[in-house]
Q: What sequence folds into this?
């Protein structure tokens, strides 16, 4: 696998009352000794050349009227067929992040060809939501804090728990306006239990956040009970054999 150089390039798309800028960035470090099944890490330049269908995120109206703007950084996994099979928000306001995921998951790429045939690849992209201020308009100093004070946060409705759970993982979930989990980020807990916790929290149900009578995408942090693999292993083999 060749190491690929990183360059910056921005593509701008206008929307009513706002702009969305899309630009891929190179991950911080490329893989140097990956297994044959591991996805290849590619930079923005190559990923951009492979991109054949790009959906521009819609600027959320609630974000626009509340002067919410800024960067959303997304990591994506692209299949051998060129479809985005996983997209994860690394940075961004929840309103903008949800809009970004909705668009990015519809992007299409040409397959990444290697000597062994088509291969999965991993890359990142930046989407910059920017507002067009009218002449004389003054943007608020802390628009995100102002909106947060007005938002009623999500709440857990149902929380299925494995009776064998002996520990927990603290996770930040991104919920859509229907209260469905659309992205997860483990924040604290045993790394070996992150995947189990992410799968478990996807089975929970939530009341979505609200701004007045409107339902909103929003972040929410929860502790997800999981089974302690160390305890299970010791119980299965008390002699340590």
A:
């Amino acid at each position: 696998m060749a190491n690929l150089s990183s360059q910056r390039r921005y593509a701008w798309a206008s929307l009513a009352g706002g702009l969305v800028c899309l630009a891929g960035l190179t991950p911080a470090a490329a893989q140097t000794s990956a297994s044959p099944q591991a996805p290849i890490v590619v930079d923005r330049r190559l990923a951009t050349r492979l991109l054949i269908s790009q959906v521009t995120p819609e600027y959320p109206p609630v974000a626009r009227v509340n002067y919410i703007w800024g960067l959303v950084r997304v990591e994506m996994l692209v299949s051998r067929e060129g479809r985005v099979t996983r997209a994860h928000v690394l940075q961004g306001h929840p309103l903008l992040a949800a809009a970004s995921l909705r668009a990015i998951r519809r992007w299409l790429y040409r397959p990444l060809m290697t000597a062994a045939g088509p291969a999965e690849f991993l890359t990142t992209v930046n989407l910059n939501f920017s507002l067009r201020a009218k002449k004389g308009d003054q943007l608020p100093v802390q628009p995100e804090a102002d909106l947060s004070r007005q938002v009623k946060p999500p709440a857990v409705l149902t929380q299925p728990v494995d009776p064998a759970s002996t520990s927990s993982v603290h996770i930040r979930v991104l919920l859509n306006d229907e209260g469905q989990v659309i992205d997860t980020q483990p924040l604290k807990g045993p790394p070996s239990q992150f995947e189990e916790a992410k799968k478990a929290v996807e089975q929970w149900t939530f009341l979505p956040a609200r701004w007045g009578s409107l339902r909103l995408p929003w972040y929410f942090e929860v502790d997800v009970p999981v089974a302690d693999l160390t305890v299970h292993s010791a119980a299965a083999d008390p002699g340590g054999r």
Q: What stands out?
A: The radius of gyration is 21 Å. Residues 1-18, 24-35, 231-237 have pLDDT under 50 and may be disordered. Residues 151 and 211 are 5 Å apart (CA to CA).
